[in-house]
Specification:
By secondary structure, the chain is mainly β. The protein contains 7 helices and 31 strands. Among the domains are: about 80 residues, no CATH class; about 120 residues, no CATH class. The longest helix has 15 residues.
Length: about 525
């Protein structure tokens, strides 16, 4: 059963108009004088059939939901209650006639509200095909305001937006002046528009919606909020080491000695040419050290936070209509090197300097990058460079615990409580598979496979591989995206839950996030 909202949002009816109800929850018709385009009406057409009417996109009214199987698709109609005309298809701004209207409900199903005030995707959870079907408000599907609002920008240490970058060339400010991308004064970030994200399953159909409306939900609906002033780094995180005792996680383009990335091994820091680690992402730190380096910047700064990463994945799926992040305009990403060749070249250190995709601006796409023995393509999703591939990204606010043959996964919504241990801020969201494989079904609301899921392939189901911990491994951190040698395994849903938070490797890095208080 679809969840219902517990209160009707103010946008449903025209401000200032009064709607009163009698003891039978029926409207007093004298108080309903007119309804205009933009209002929502629920009417009984005949016993047992409830039709939900909203304005169409050609000045008419359309059925968008119905209990009758014959009206599952959008249809225009003008008659209810024995031929009474309730809307004029030629002029929907015309006042309604002052005649009794039967069963105007005070509470509307959440699915209806989201079909009007949101846009998203739906998919049968039994489908092997990774594609999704768009749903929700048609105009919002076209304009995608929560996608087009993603923009590269400069942010100061207080988390304040300083300036937007040119939408087509990130080396310039929006006004055309040169941009300071050095990460010494400002961080190069991507603004994530504020919104609410809703997830629910009805009749085995999984629905995901984005909306600017804060609807009340019941226990069958997951609701997530992205606050205004939320940012994620445009590039993989580098490390500002001006103060070696207090390194600070950063996002920018800086190829000086103070921003040497990679594994931190002294002899590797001396590399030059193609293997030069200056300006490359910082790696080879455990989860807690990355977390500390982000906090060293100022209050509100975190490494790649699971609530933000999870949201970005769903933004991608809603826009591209597929779980297969390697099958669209981003391509396979920096994943096409063999493991042995990478090890021989630079011992699994990062080799792509941050900022290769500045020429894309805010657009999604890929840029070719060549080194000896390899031609690869660096992807960017709406300003987020290398959202998967190149190096694994430690992700905070999510932990798994393997014990007695069961793997439980926990998430934390309060970044102040992010930890290497499962504390009071973490809540269980489900069980993960106990073996490493491709899987078909995700935990609803999350980009992780569920323990009950059938297996899949690199082009079916979730499309990306999952690494499971051993049966009694204890607490494990999670990394996402994969590295340069992971090929078809990689993608936004590629997850490794088999490493303790204390582990550190040359190809383990992260990103930088700002989450407002």
């Amino acid at each position: 059963m679809l969840a219902e909202s517990k209160a009707l949002p103010s946008k449903i009816f025209r401000p200032g108009e009064m709607y009163e109800y009698d003891d039978n929850n029926l409207p007093k018709p004298t108080n309903i004088s007119q309804l205009y385009k933009g209002d929502i009406l629920v009417l009984k057409k005949e016993p047992g059939l409830t039709a939900y009417l909203v304005p169409g996109h050609k000045d008419d009214w359309r059925v968008i939901k119905s209990t009758a199987s014959t009206q599952d698709q959008m249809k225009t109609f003008t008659n209810v209650n024995a031929g009474e005309v309730v809307a004029n298809m030629e002029d929907s701004t015309r006042p309604f006639p002052k005649t009794p209207i039967v069963n105007l409900f005070k509470k509307l199903p959440l699915s209806l509200l989201l079909d009007v005030y949101g846009y998203g995707i739906c998919r049968n959870r039994n489908n092997t095909d990774p594609t999704w079907t768009p749903c929700g408000n048609h105009m919002l599907q076209i304009t995608m305001p929560f996608h087009t609002g993603m923009r590269r920008c400069l942010v100061d240490d207080a988390g304040a937006l300083v300036a937007y970058l040119d939408p087509q060339d990130s080396t310039k400010l929006e006004d055309g002046d040169p941009a300071d991308l050095s990460a010494e004064r400002f961080q190069v970030m991507v603004e994530i528009p504020a919104c609410y994200r809703y997830h629910f399953v009805a009749d085995n159909i999984e629905y995901v919606y984005l909306s600017d409306q804060d609807f009340e939900v019941d226990e069958n609906v997951l609701k997530f909020r992205i606050q205004e002033g939320t940012f994620i780094s445009a590039f993989e995180a580098i490390m500002d080491q001006h103060d070696s005792e207090r390194p600070i996680l950063a996002s920018g383009i800086n190829r000086t000695d103070e921003f040497i990335g990679g594994d931190g091994i002294a002899e590797h820091a001396e590399w030059t040419g193609e293997k030069d680690l200056r300006g490359r992402p910082k790696t080879n730190l455990p989860l807690a050290k990355f977390r500390e380096a982000a906090h060293n910047r100022s209050q509100g700064w975190y490494i790649q936070a699971h609530p933000i990463y999870n949201h970005i994945c769903w933004l991608f799926f809603i826009e591209k209509l597929t779980f297969n992040s390697q099958a669209v305009d981003l391509g396979e990403g920096v994943t096409n090197w063999t493991s042995s060749a990478w090890n021989t070249f630079n011992a699994y250190n990062p080799f792509v300097p941050c900022g290769i995709t500045t020429q894309l601006g805010n657009a999604s796409g890929k840029v070719q990058y060549d080194i000896t023995g390899l031609t690869t393509h660096v992807p960017s999703y709406r300003g987020i460079e290398n959202p998967f591939g190149h190096i694994w990204k430690w992700t905070d606010g999510i932990l798994a615990k393997a014990a007695n043959g069961v793997i439980k996964v926990y998430v934390c919504d309060d970044p102040h409580l992010f930890s290497d241990e499962i504390n009071e801020g973490y809540r269980e969201i489900g069980h993960l598979p106990t073996s490493s494989n491709y899987y078909k079904q995700n935990i609803p609301g999350y980009v992780l496979p569920t323990a009950e899921s059938p297996t899949a392939t690199a082009t079916t189901g979730l499309c990306d591989y999952f690494y499971a911990p051993s049966a009694n491994a204890g607490v494990r951190g999670l990394l996402f995206g994969g590295g340069a040698g992971h090929g078809a395994n990689a993608g936004l849903s590629y997850a490794a839950a088999n490493n303790a938070p204390s582990y550190a490797y040359a190809f383990f890095g992260s990103r930088l996030c700002f989450i407002p208080e």
